[in-house]
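Table 4 source record.
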Amino acid sequence: MCRWLAYAGSPLLLDEVLYRPEHSLIDQSLHARMGVESTNGDGFGIGWYSPGGDGTPAVFRDIGPAWNNRNLRELAAHVRSPLFFAHVRASTGSAIQQTNCHPFRHGRWLWMHNGAIADFPRLQRDLCMAVDPALFPSMEGSTDSEVMFYLAVTFGLDQDVPGAVAKMAGLVERLGKLHGVDHPLQMTIAVSDGERVWAFRYSSQKQSRSLFYSNKTDTVRELYPELDYLRDVSDETRLVVSEPLGSLPGVWNELPEGSYAVLPSAPTEDYLPFVPDLT
C-alpha cells in the first residue's frame, strides 16, 4: 500500500511538510509505521496549485523512490502553494511506471488513493466500461486507482464530490458481489478542485487503512506556543495524512471508519459519514 498527505491553508513551501517533520512523508517512504509495507519506494508524486494560476494543478511524478530524488528536494525547497498533495507508492501489482504514480490529474482535479480493489483484473473490464467514453483518452495507466478516479468524474465529481465518490464505491461493491469478491474495496482517497480537499476513509471490511487529520490551528497554538511556524499560518490551515507527521499529543485525530473530511472544514464538524451508493 501507499502513504500520502494533503495540505490546505496558508501558502507554504512544500519542504516544510515533505522533509522537515520528524516523521515526514519522505521518512515514511522508508519507514512507514502504519502501512502494510514499511517501505514505499515504487514511485512518488506531488501535485500543487499555484496562487494566481489558471486553476489547474501542476504535477511532478517519478518511478524511483522519493527518499533520494534530488529533483523532488529541489522543487520542495522552492515551490510555495496553498494546496498540495504528495504520495509515495507501494505497488499492489500494477507496473512501476510514471503513468501509475499518484496524484492523477484531470482538468482542475487532483486525486490520490491508498488501498486497492480486490481481484481488480476480474472486475477491471466491467469497471472500465462504466467510464464515460469521452474520458478514455485521458486514462494513461493501468491502476485501479486511476479507474476509480475516472469513474468518479463520470459520476459527477464536478457537481457533487461525496455523491460521485459514493457512486464509484457503490459500483465497486456491486460488481465485487456479482463476481464473487467478498471484500472488494479498500480506500483512503484525497480529491481536490484547487479550492477544497475531500478525504475519504472506507473499506468493505470496515478495516480501512490509517488516516488522520490535524487539529485546528488555534488549538495547536494554545497547546504548543513555542512552535514558531504556526504563527504565520491561518486558522483554516489543516492537513490530512496517512500517518501523523510527529508525536506531539493533541495535534492529530484519526478520521473514523466510514467517514470523510473537507478542508477547509465546516465550523461545526470535522467530518461526515460516508456510505457507498448501492442504487
